[in-house]
Amino acid sequence: MSDAAHPDPGLATRADSTATPVVLAALDNSAAAGPVLRTASALAGGLGAEVRAVHVRGDGDRTARSIAEAAGVSFEERRGGVVAQLRAAAAEPGVRLLVLGARSRPTSTRAGHVALALAEDPPVPLALVPPDARVASPIRRVLVALEASVARREALAEAVEVVDGSDREVVVLHVDDEATLPAVSDQPQHETAAYATEFVARYCPPGLSPVRLELRVGDPTRELLEAVDELTVDLVALGCPRSLAPGRAAVVRGVIGASPVPVLLVPLPLRP
Amino acid sequence: MVDAVARRFEAVVFDWDGTAVPDRRADASALGALVEECSALGLHLAVVSGTHVGNVAPQLGARPSGPGEVWLALNRGSELFCLGRDGPKLLARREATPDEDAALSAAAERTVAVLAARGLHAEIVSSRLNRRKIDLIPEPEWADPPKAMIDRLLAAVLDRLGRAGIGGLEEAVALARAEAAAAGLTQARVTSDAKHVEIGLTDKSDSARALLDRLAAVGVGPGLVLVVGDEMGPLGGLPGSDALLLVPEADGATAVSVGIEPGGVPGGVCHLGGGPDRFRALLADQCDRRRRGEPPGADPDPRWSLRVAGVDLETERATEARLTLADGRVGTTGAPLLGHPAATGWVLVAGVYHGEGPDTELLPGPLWSRLSGPLPPGAELRRHLDLRSGILTEQVRHDAGPGGPAGPGRIDLRSARWSSLADPGTGVLWRTGPGPPAPPGLLLPPADGRAVTTGRVGEVCWMRVEGRPAGIVAAATEQPLVTLESESPTDSSSGFTGASDDDRALPPNASARVRIARFVADPESVPDVAEAVEALHGVAVTHRERLLDAHRRAWGARWAAGGARIDGDDDLDLGVRLGLFHLIASVTDRGEAAVGARGLTGPGYKGHVFWDADTYVLPYLAATHPPAARAMLEYRIRRLPAARAEAARRGLAGARFPWESARTGVDVTPPFTRDRTGRVIPIRTGAMEEHITAQVAWAADCYLAWTGDEAFAAGPGRDLFIETARYWASRIRLDPQGGGHLYGVIGPDEYHEPVDDNAFTNLMARWNLRRAAALDGVAAAERDRWLELADALVDGYDPATGIYEQFAGFFRLEPLVVEELVPRRPVAADLVLGPGRVAQAQVVKQADVVLAHHLIPEETAPGSLRPNLEFYEPRTAHGSSLSPGIHAALFARAGEAGRAVDALRIAARLDLDDLTMTTAAGIHLATAGSVWQALAFGFAGLRPGNGALRLDPRVPSDWRGLELRVRFRGVAVRLEACADAATVHLDGPVTLEVGGTRRRAGPGTLRLRRREVLDPARDPAAGAGDPAAPVWEVTP
User: Fold this and answer.
1) B398 touches A: beta carbon within 8 Å
2) Do B677 and A216 touch (CB under 8 A)?
3) Would you say A101 and A63 are in contact if contact means Cβ atoms under 8 Å apart?
4) What is the domain range of residue B755?
5) Which pLDDT score, from 0 to 100, does residue B846 have?
6) Closest by alpha carbon to B332, among B470, B415, B447, B413?
7) pLDDT tens-digit readout, B825-834
8) Has this prediction a pTM greater than 0.80?
9) Which residue of A has its CA nearest to B748?
10) Are B676 and A188 within 8 A, CB to CB?
């Protein structure tokens, strides 16, 4: 769902479907640059897209430029406010995805301010890459975190477009907490399957077939991060609300801050 | 045709004189022919008149052949006839006693005397059955005025009354009523038609009630009834005589007047005028609609309706489960006629499985009720399930401009479909209006997309689904309905419904079509296509109206035998009714009935049979439709060899029934699974949840208690009791002190596994042993052994507290009281707190100890219900759908009406509100059964035992009433109860137990009242269980 203040970022790119799609890798001059570029390349392969590196000059550009040159991708340098410049670059025709660092240092457990700012009003889906990310190439297994919401299903359909592919396995993860757990559960050997079948039918984005559904109960952030390790996931996709102010979007903030693998954020519609 | 009557009705109830005929001398031959045609086309008709059969039947001159019934409700509510090929046949007559007859005469004489004293000469002009008629204007000029003169007649009468100082007809009637009361007739029915005052024991309202009962028995509710009179409106300040037809039970019927109605008509009545000519036009229109192929509409009564508009992405599949049509053999979920991405649609056949071991699942069948193509975006879709008749109507409207190969064009479909309860395995789809065609081959592959084979034999299409080892073949045909000048409903020349080869027929009305599908299935092999085609031919020769009528009657009979109604809580009432609907539909009454946890309403639980069937589903059927209960027991009986083999495999005797059962009777419980938290967990219920063996015996005993089926008791029932007792006898371990133990079991509370000496299991085993020991012909040594073991079995009961320890060591667990820990219950406590934590705590999944109080109260310590309920209920998470209904029953018995209703509401609304988010996988049949048990055993206090039916209602004071219908030892019992009064209607003799006293009663009506027990020590009726509880007694 979109409105005048928050145009659907997907629409802008989909409208220009004749151009070669582009995955934009935002390289800062830090240890995150390499993983960002590798992630961009891995995702671009599935989209049939071209990778372009963009750097907003700050203190220097040699790391960023060298990494781009070594990978053989084009390098564009911009000047100005980082967020504004990246937003403008991502809004250009053909850009399907923007990849940038989740945070600058491996020891940091909080998302970087640039990542957070762009995540609040992304021009296109964002992939946020930890500086110490294990980047699989090709990306084989993607974990899509799903809430029990028909509205969010439509939004995450876009994530499916980005990550789906014949050589990729998409695993859908749903975490219930005490408030969302159905009140009654009879025989687990049948109940879980019945619940899972219905959950997929209700909430999984169309185009995901067959679906492997993983169910968890507990704190959503913790369960999601544990699932990343347990299931040996290469990429996490989750919906991102429009506001990431402190106290809100705890799951997104927590996952961005702690995920060992890249995280694809898909903008969620505004709640009616 | 006025909107109110511009639709198809299933019954017309009408007044005679002035409505159907101008007077009693008029030539009614045309009407008689019309009546015969209506009956042949399936329309039920009922004449209501104050006169007698000698006046009506010859004048009408009809000899209807059915399927529509023609009733004559005559003598002003005192007689009911059915009219057939051989003339009228008396069905019921109210006979006045000599005292009543004398009182009627005295009342009339006194009334005439009182009127004379006021200066009005009146005469008693007839002494008909159960009434006396007084002429208020016995003057030659007004000897026999036609109806058309009613306003002049009224004026003359009022003038005459006025000159005598009598204030109109109201006062005249009041005078007569007073004199009737003085003569001893306090419930007299006093009416006036302006010329006369009649004092009677019955009136047209009695006719109306009798007819509505008859219509309900043939599956027609008031919403499908047209009531026609000519005196609906007030006459001289009194309600018109035909207004008496509009009893509260007729709420929802369409009422019209064809009379002059000088005083207007009451609200809710449509004034058409036009007299008998108009009435004949109404009947002719009903015939036309049927000849044109108009499908039946849905009864709008909200108490009997599930209505759904559109398709909701989130809830569609749960909706489809609720809208399932089933006939005990084949179930078809309620997916729309046109495709939709959110819709699935299943066809399941009872007991027909595919696969092996834990992977055994119900084999899905071909979809028979679909049309080609998708539901266009923006199309208006309405589905309406009529619970009374098991008919799903669907309307689809869409106007996208000119159609053609590329688009749907205009769609204006009206349809009705059903799965015939009269002829299980038969589906009928009847539709009319422009819309997409049927799919090529009429049938579509099953919902899971498995491979099928298809073919055609003449006009019959077939589809075969092959499983391992089972198979399903569906054969279907679809024909347009031909509009004939005089369609013969019994014409079978073409072999197909409603169609004819007659070259002289009018062009076919191609927009009305009827599709019939017939299923043939076999759990052990793939049926031959020829068998299905032949079976279809056997059905298709029957006229569609006869198929409809037979199906409606079958449903009418089931509700007449086993309906329930809560008056005063519509939400609860609907939840109850929906559950009963699916219980009736999911269980066949022929052969064996494999009743899976979700019945025929969805694929959930793979159709595996659990203790749900024996403990929760069977009792309703035993009490209302014993053949279905017997079929459920047959399922177990046929798997007794497998149960014996399992016991032997374990080195034990007798028979051990499996936790999960399917085709063969071998346990199909999977050994492990992943739970909702993602953990792989072992499933131990197959190995250890053994109380099911006693449940099977309990189910047999329940069936016998309600039916007294001696052949079953002496035959296979005996085998069940004996073999299950032998199992327990071999399973019990004695300790050195002689105590008997059952080690390593799982009780109904599956949060704790395994445990020793689960109280419920031990109590059930004890009951099982004693039940078998009571059989005749058991060897003395074996019987004595059983009784010894039964006595030896420990049960965890502490007389000091009155509480049973749920299992050995339960009281040493962490004393968590889950009611205080969570914001709401039910709650899946194992998921919220973690399985390890609940296993170490006193958190109980569902009714366990207290379930014994519900199922075998005679085996529990007297007075122990309340302490166990008070201890265990707060510790019960109700994390199982089986729990709330049982607690509702127990709270009702304990006199805690509020908590009982709260628990009942959870159970009754479980699938309506989709509390588990798995209703899409099918309706929770066991929960539905538990709801009925709560009503029957809990609130109504109906309990069979020792050849008698005990009544001890505990109806909440904020319910206006509870009605329950059961069959006890072949006798129809209808209980109507409120908090402190009850009426029991019996259609035969039974032994009842009321207030501790057994009595033989029936046929007839018994009235009960409740009284308090002031001194339990001296009151012989005071119950042993709760001496202070109020008791019931029969009123004189």
Assistant:
1) no
2) yes
3) no
4) 563-939
5) 96
6) B447
7) 999 999 889 8
8) yes
9) A186
10) yes
